[in-house]
Every structure is written in structure tokens, then in C-alpha cells.
Amino acid sequence: MPLIPEEPQIHESAQGPRVTPATGRTAPTPRPVPGPRSAATPRPGRPGPGPARPAPPAQRPHPTSDDLRKTDRPEDRSAPQLQLIPASASGALDAADEAVDLLLDSGRAPGEILVLTTGDQHPWAAHELSFGEAAYWAQHEAGDDVFFAGAAFADRVRPRPVVIVAVNGGDTVTGALTGARERAGALLIVCGDPERINAVLGAGV
Q1: The pTM is what?
Q2: How is 138-190 classified by DSSP, letter by letter?
Q3: Which of 31, 38, 65, 90 has the most other CB atoms within 10 Å of its CB?
Q4: How far is CA 180 from the centre of its chain?
Q5: Which of these, 200, 173, 189, lies nearest to 85 by C-alpha position?
Q6: pLDDT tens digits, residue range 111-122?
């Protein structure tokens, strides 16, 4: 009686590892982030020493790297694409930090990103300013890393391809948004109250 060879069994372990994206976010293609920083100078967006930021609101919408990439289109070179991330005044800094992380993960170079705040300074900016304005602005002139500045300095900062505005209070929202739009080369991201932002930039946001 002829022997019938058994069909080879494919073991689950031979099928390769399974990757499960984090819940609630589209898993971006991991990319190395250029420009490592020493422990003494933490990378902007992830400050080490300095005041702690308030916890974000429990149900703040989370942007994804796809959301940020799809608005960065070159069709209209006369004005930047606009991306609105709804956030409260107390959660605007955290929303801006998350946008920075997603942009870096999607391949943006750190030196292409500028973050402006309308209220209190970002903790990174406050920390760097503690060493003096000369050292702080020297980092801006170098242009090789994410730079954080208050809206009061909007006239002094140079344009960058991506500008993020954290509307975290203050009385300079209109001027900050107008100045940010003039300095954003390709993409303007605004984190804050949608009604207030649309009143300044228009319903097209």
C-alpha cells in the first residue's frame, strides 16, 4: 500500500511576528530621528529639567501622523496648509508636543519645526532661557533642532517649513496666528479652541 506523504504543517512561529498597532493611533513607520542630544540638553518636545506640564484633558482628540502628512501638500505654494487640533488652553502644549513627535516620526527634520505659544512659555524654552538669551537664540540661529518661542518673539523667529501654534492663553492670539501663518512655509498646525482659531484664520481651517 503506497504511503501518502503528510502535508507539511506550518507552525504559527514560522509565520513571522505579529505587530499590533497601539490602540487609537495609526502606527507610523519608525524612522531614525537625526541629531542626538546629550543628557544635559534634552531634545525639544521632551524636556528633561524644568517645570512639569499639566496633564492633558481626558478626552482630547489625538492627531495621527497620517492627519499631519495629508495636509502637507505642495499644490498651493502661496499659503501653508492648515491643520487644526482641538485642545483646551491647558492641553494645548501637550497637543503641540504630540504633533512634534508625529512629525518627527513621519520623517520631518527637527530643524524644520517651529513651535509658538500664546500664553506661558513652553517648558523647554523656559529652561533654555534660564541660561541667558544669547545661548537661547544661538540655538535658533543654528536651525538644526525644533525651536520653541513665545508669541512675543514671533517677529524675531525665522520662517520654517512647519509652524505649530499652541493657543495656551494670553492676549496675543490674533497676532500670533497671523505671524505664524506668515512664517509657515508648508504646514501650519494650530492647537486650541476651534471657534477662537476660526474667528482669526477663517472657516477654512
Answers
A1: 0.64
A2: HHHHH--S-EEEEGGGTTTSPPEEEEEEE--S-S-HHHHHHHHHHHEEEEEEE
A3: 65
A4: 15
A5: 189
A6: 999 999 999 999
